[in-house]
Amino acid sequence: MKHMNSEVKEERTSNKKRIDLFLVPIVLIAAFLSLFKIWTDEYANAYYTAAVKSMLQSFHNFFYASFDPGGYVTIDKPPVVFWIQTISAKIFGFHGWSVILPQALAGIGSVLLLYVLIKRTFGVWAGRFAALAMALTPIVPAVSRTNNIDSMLVFTLLLATWMLFRAVRTVKFGWVLAAFAMIGVAFNMKMLQAYMVLPAFYVFYVVATKITWKKKIAFLTTATALMLAVSVSWAVVVDSTSADKRPYMGSSQTNSVLELAFGYNGINRLTGNTSVTGSSHKQPAQTEQQTASSETKQNSNSSADSSQSSNQRKSSFSQKMQAPGGGNQNGMFNTGNPGPFRLFQKGLSDQISWLLPFVIFSIVGLFAGVKFKGPYTAKQKESLFWLAWLLPVAVFFSIAGFFHQYYLIMLAPPIAAFAGAGAVALWSMYKQHNDWKSWLLPGGILTTAALQVYIMSPYVSSIGVAPIAGVGALGVILALVLAIRKQRKNSLTNYLGAAAMVVLLAMPAYWAMTPIIYGGNSMLPSAGPDSSSGMGGPPSKATNSKQSGFNGMQPPGSSSGNSSSNNQMQPPSGSSNSGQMQMPGGSSNNSQMPNSFSSKSSSSKRKSGGMNAEVNQKLLNYLTKNNTGEKYLFATTDSTSAAPYIIKTGKPVMAMGGFSGSDPILTLSKLKAMIKKGEVKYFYLSGMGKGGQSDVITWIKENSKEIPSSKWQSTSSSAQQGPSGNGTLYEITLK
To answer: pTM of the entire structure?
Structure first.
């Protein structure tokens, strides 16, 4: 106990010391990467932004995280992060940047937390380098610049880690409870993804805590019970509430939070089994983020592009959809093919893997001489924690059937931790030993530089040969010089070691800046010269990377005056293009994508996020003028067409099939009852998202009056042809 008290006193003393001046620029870098120009993202991820707009209107919508103001259906995730976003929007006003701000601050907070966690045991320089590595891991700022959940999730898990470390140091049961309760809170952010760190928590507490086995088992059992209770608390309340008293649980097939947690947001991510059963037939489910990149927008500055034939554009788009980023081997959404080297495949490696070889050498050095039965030093115990975080998560992403690139942020903390702790450990071994351990530093530098050359090589047309050759040459030279000077201990050797670390972080730093340089994508965030596409991977030669992304898309009801020259993607019901990748949730074997809006970098307000936040004003005027007291402005198949009108007006718009259009929410009897009650009379159908509601849509078409397009459809020359072509507006009035 005396030893524990001395540790607590030491911690309090250290907290009173002056701010680490080396940490200040690291935090400023993280702040710049996370915050700069987020005010240009006007609507962020429109699906989630629409929910915030709805949650601002009533506590009922707030509690259930309703997608629409009418409380018809929820979003596809638990509410905690969106509660925070709604509070931010309440304080600062409803803007794109106000819903992004909490995630940006969480990204900065994660850098600070990692510094604190590593500094205490491994030293101040290890903490500094770990914080810098975290800040410059490309996927970290890419996600932090959006209103997606993952940045806040990682921050919450790091906060739980800090609590766990404190529990071990102080041997206080309260901190154990707090740590596991925090994981329960994280579960209410992104469900089972939060549990990916549990192996690390259990292993570390068992190995590091100096109490009896009886107490360890009792403490962990109680803490786990609390974690589970916190995890399911919201789910139990929602699932216990009568279905007619709350919104439908979006993206579930049984209107259940627990089914959503263990199915759509759980096991299905591992198995890749995204098939769901709709009301009448089975079809692939819509992916979490409902779109992929269209990189064939005509270049307004190039007459050659404007004269390109429609068939050539369709062929180019088909190739892109077969293998985002080029090559069929890249898998859906450019996440590669499952296997032991998946994290080194293009599309994933440039998001997270820049320092992985150095991390592997660091792990070898940190565990050198460790005996299975111990005793273990504090450094070895904490290294075991980070290893127990890193390995299971890396294995998951190596074998998982379905995920998005931005999920890889879960790997950033352990990679950054090992980069910081390992840099100091390998440097110490390099200077103090003459055996094999002294070769780990130059070996780590050489192999890491080689991997970075491999990562950058597909991007030679975008970034040029110079940076690739520079990293390769400097990495080889510095590694060789350090190997030659291994016996010399002077200031020049110190400078060479520092230079090597700078070289290894140079290109990750550039990659981390690409969402600022080229424009980001708020729906499918990724880093790289084509970051605005949201698909990662090397850009096409035919694509201007600054104009890639969700371009060439139109708002519902818009019509282009020259559709033949624009990039047109057909609706599911009518497309004849073959060889295209199935977008889950589509109703055919062709590539189907929702109405989307541009995420290119520009000086104007950026409307990124994969849904068209540009509403058709003529359609809106018509619907508003002819509304005779109906609850819903109009109904549509899915959230794609609904989101921009919710954001623009704050009025209820019904996404009949939820996010993807495949949720079995609406039955014919329910629809007829709603129409008779005067709750809805207008239906905008564009051919998208029919899954699970084809009978409803068929009935609507057979029992409605089609509104002439001249009354509501925009013919502005500025409108661009979208994937759904020209939708149809119907009116139904039942007596």
So the answer is: 0.84
